[in-house]
Specification:
The protein has one domain: Uracil-DNA Glycosylase, subunit E. About 40% of the residues lie in helices and about 10% in strands. The protein is built from 8 helices and 6 strands; from the N terminus they run H-H-E-E-H-H-E-H-E-H-E-E-H-H. A 6-stranded mixed beta sheet has the order 1-3-2-4-6-5, with helices on both faces. A hairpin with a 2-residue loop joins strand 5 and strand 6. Helix 4 packs across helix 8. The protein is globular, with a radius of gyration of 16 Å.
Length: about 220
């Protein structure tokens, strides 16, 4: 069984299973004619990627609907536009799994693989998902930089990828922390709360993605 198939069949967290399936049944009015994915989300992208983007969790009516992380919601719109501007994505939009989007030198995944109620996973749910990230990274042999989108992803990345690092660096936009052969790079999450208020601007996100590419290139010199 492939890693993606194992993730898609996961039922470890009863609260998340119930929520993701309830959302898929009840749907949002704007998507009432669509078939929701309603299952855990696997990462996707370039298997030779040096840059990995780590998000929080699937959005209830975004990835939980489309079956691909950051696809079909406003956060994804903001993120994929930046990935296209900085050369990581073949197109600036991501609407559904079969829309032709291809990533270059980039892999996108999440700390928690199911849509959580109120977008707030429990600590136990984060821990239940932790092994997926470690397994994913083991398969991404060229990965050198992990861009952590938000404090939750930063904490999850630190716990899984740099458990012995002391003192543990606090999350901050553009903060860098080195753990073994990886660099963790902090970035404000492209949520509407951040992008509508100007806390995260397109230029700020572009700068982080460009820095990730620079760090990835430096790691092989």
């Amino acid at each position: 069984m492939t890693l993606a198939a194992s993730i898609h069949g996961c039922h470890r967290c009863p609260r998340l299973v119930a929520w993701r399936e309830q959302v898929a049944r009840e749907k949002r009015a704007a998507f009432r004619t669509e078939s929701y994915w309603g299952r855990p989300i696997a990462g996707f992208g370039d298997p030779d990627a040096r840059v990995l983007l780590l998000g929080l969790a699937p959005a209830a009516h975004g990835a939980n609907r489309t079956g691909r992380i950051f696809t079909g919601d406003r956060s994804g719109d903001f993120l994929f536009a930046a990935l296209h501007r900085t050369g990581y994505a073949s197109q600036p939009t991501s609407r559904h799994r079969g829309d032709g989007l291809a990533l270059r030198d980039c892999w996108i995944t999440a700390a928690v693989r199911c849509a959580p109620p109120a977008n707030k996973p429990l600590p136990s749910e984060r821990e239940n998902c932790a092994g997926w990230l470690r397994t994913e990274l083991a398969l991404l042999a060229q990965a050198r930089v992990v861009v952590c989108l938000g404090a939750f992803a930063w904490d999850a990345g630190m716990r899984r990828l740099a458990p012995g690092l002391r003192p543990r660096p606090r999350f901050g936009h553009a903060t860098e922390a080195h753990a073994g052969g990886l660099t963790l790079l902090g970035c404000y999450h492209p949520s509407q709360q951040n992008t509508f208020t100007g806390r995260l601007t397109p230029a700020m996100l572009d700068a982080v993605l460009e820095r990730a590419g620079e760090l990835a290139r430096l790691s092989v010199l």
